[in-house]
Amino acid sequence: MTWRAAALLGAGALTLPLWPAPWLGVLLMTGAVLVLTVVDWTLAVPPGAVRASRQGARVVWLGDTATVAVHLHNTAARPLRGLVRDAWVPSAGARPGFPGAPRVRIDPGARVVLPTLLTPTRRGDRPAVRLTLRSYGPLGLAFRQRSREPETPPWTLRVLPRFASRRHLPEKLARLRAIDGTEVARGRGQGTEFDALREYVVGDDVRSVDWRASARRADVLVRTWRPERDRRVVCVLDTGRTAAVRVGDVPRLDAAIEAALLLAALAGRAGDRVDLLAVDETVRVAVTGGSQSTVLARMVNALAPLTPNLVETNFALVAGEILRRERHRCLVVLFTALEAAALGEGLLPVLPRLAARHQVVVAAVHDPVLTDLTTRTPKQVREVYATAAAWRALTDRDRVRAALHRHGVTVVDAPADQLAPMVSDTYLRLKALGQL
Amino acid sequence: MTTPTAAAARPRRIADQARRRRRWHRLTIPLGVAALLLAVTGITHAIDQPDPESPGFLSPVSTDDVGGSRLAAELRDRGVTIERMTSIRRALSLATSEGFTLFVPAPGLVHRAYWPLVVDPAENARVVLVDPPRQVLAAARVPLAGAGRRWAARAVPAETDGQPCPLPELGGVGPAAVLLQRYADPPGRTFRADRCYAGGVARTRWRGNDLVVVGASDPFRNDRIDEWHNAALVTNLLAVHGRVVWLDLDGPEPPPPSPPDGERESTPPPESGGPYDEGTYDHGDVEVPGGGEYASPPSTREPQAERPQRGNPLWDALPAWFWAMLVQLAVALLLLALWRGRRLGPPVAEPLPVTVPAAETALGRGRLYHRARAYGPTAELLRAAALHRLRRATDRVAGSRPAEVVAAVAARTGQRPEDVHHLLYGPAPTTNQELLDLARALDRLAPSASPVQPVSRQATPPDHHPSVPFRPDRPVEGETR
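^ inputs. structure came back:
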């Protein structure tokens, strides 16, 4: 029943002083309202007579708005008046996008499209949970509402991670082309590839002269070099407890994902193969092989539902996976945090094996709160202690960094918004130096 | 290919449920234990306390623990005759004006119509009531009032408030376990009752009778009569006259076969002058006692309680439609509640991602330092950090020895070397204020903001690649070749 039935009964109650037998009046009026309500209930369109389906976006970038529409088809012979609620998980940011929501009116045999606007607040898979339909009778005294009628059409919206570092891509590509077009300054660097022969011009490195080719022709020929292609880059994301730490307003993992995506885009253009691993206690995500043109899309798709876990990352597993998957020398970019406890006990023991075969880069997001603490003049006693603890954390971080240096590891330590360009810069520099 | 392993959702849900269950336990277990203790205590106490309605309770022929056969035997040994009566009517009819003792072990079983008679059976009689309910005393208007009840009977000496017991027959009787219900004089009465055993036994003269109220049934019972001086107490109380009328009721007394209400007003029951009418009462064979004189017929207010309940006056004061309207509005309210109670689908739940606040460990460690009052270690950390900054600022010209550092810093900042030495190598502070002063002084000496670099930038190798020039405001990228 609805408020109308209650209001009818309440209004009837006001006429009771005029009744000769008030108690009879109560019985009559209550009975009449109940009968009307039952009649109205039977006249309401049963929710099971409505067919529901869904159409709309499957994928949306975080921060954008997608539209997913529910299509309702009234198969009953009476018009449907009612309320519709299309319930999504709260983080999907759903709001009804049709006028007069949540009221609907569907004529017999007609179909209506009820769009829902979704502005998700987190990446990952955001499912539609429940479609609820409340069908009122013609008098509006009663309604029918059943769970699972109509059946909720399943739908999942995949929210892709924010890829704001895309804006850095043109600049990095320009630098890549600059490296590509010029000779490598160091001449016959280790691992550089032969490109072509051309005539000697004054200023070329005499060590590049190809005497055998020069002997065949009258001119002096030099070899030209180009950066290696078909190198391998492995992005390893640490999804353990340190990845859950909030830096600014997002987890550290999100900054790492953004940097990994920019690196993958750049390396893909440079002709290198990019693999991806996300590991904590187990391997959460592994994107390997496949065509280079689709690797970025596959990576984005695989990383979207990735969440940090409150576990200690198993770096022995990380090293084992990399050594098992990558037989050739490759660039391993490990996205983690420079934390003495996690890296000192986990990574350093396995690092020699890893660094012996691969070029390792550790990319970490550092915490702006620590810097803020250490650069502020303390005003209260509490702040003095916090400052001292922050200095200690920074000292620990430096010890870890020094230990990593000793193993020949490049360390990139940057705030969240600068991590992606700095990792790409490191990649470009290593590429220019022919160290891949 | 892509293998997102979405595991651990199910175990986490199970763990959540377990935690919720445990949280529920945290409240229920202590409350449950407390409730169990209370219940066990209450039940044990209820079992331990004799029920006056139980058969054989203080009966002269019952040899049960709660029976009174041993008391009867003691009385017979003293040459007292015991007349066992199983109905109040018979007991009252036996009562003569001669001295006798009416012993009522269970006054609560006596029908309320007889209450005034029980305390006033005849002239110059003794009445012994065992733990009478308050209503009995109130209905009979006996000038005694209950003054607190104990959890169990307690043995006390015969004195009350330091005064010896005024009852002559109790002279020389030692302590007895009689203090359960305590009696006192009701407020506003000048008449004072004789009280013994700290108020557990009270005697009052009431309309020519000798009314004794005993607060506990324990001294009379077979199983307790031997304890303390219980036997002496109860036999002395009951043996003041040569005859004891022992009212041994098996259950609640039926109401008197009284004439109808109208008649009752004019002919109040037996007490007023010789009306132990043979027509009304069927004893017949007993001599009717002479009419006692009564200050006031106590039963005049009795019939009022027997009248049928009148309706609530509010019911008649308001018209019927008002009540009908109230009912209908209540039904309308019920419909409203039903309408609001049905929601448009239940709320949607969603697992939340784990979040760890920024710099949680560092801030937590700072709080630990604070709580532990770790002045020394904190000062050490601050001084080490300041030294790092100073070394960088002075371009590493200073050596590692304190004297050289102090000299270089003093030369650079223009402060006196003694002050600088005290700041950097002085003793550890001993109070919070000293620590705060030290931190501020160090901050002035080596500003942590630009141009001096924080220690975090320290580990950058000096030979970093020239293509990435070292910029103090930029994050660093250390590499080795």
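The radius of gyration of chain B is 46 Å. The CA atoms of residues 133 and 250 of chain B lie 17 Å apart.
thumbs up if we can close this ticket
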